[in-house]
Amino acid sequence: MKNSWQATKGIGRVDPNAIESASSETARHINREIVLQLIHARQPISRADLARVSGLQRSTVSQIIEQLIRERWIREGSIAQLPRGRHPTMLILNDDLVVLAADIHPRQVTVAMLDLNGRLLSRSTLPLGSDPSKAVAAMIDCMQRIRDSYPKKSLEGIGVSVPGRVDKESQCLIFAPNLNWPKYDIKQTIERRMGLPTEMENAATACLMSELWFGRMDGVRDAVLITVSEGIGAGILANGQLISGQGGMAGEFGHISIDPSGPRCACKQNGCWEVFGSCNAALRYYAESEPKAKRLTFHELLNLAEEGSAHALAAIAKQAKYIGRGLRMVTAALSPEIILIAGDVTSAWDKYAPVIQAELDQLTLKRSAPRLLPTHEGDVARLRGAAALLLHRHSIRSS
Question: pTM score > 0.90 for this model?
Answer without folding.
Answer: no
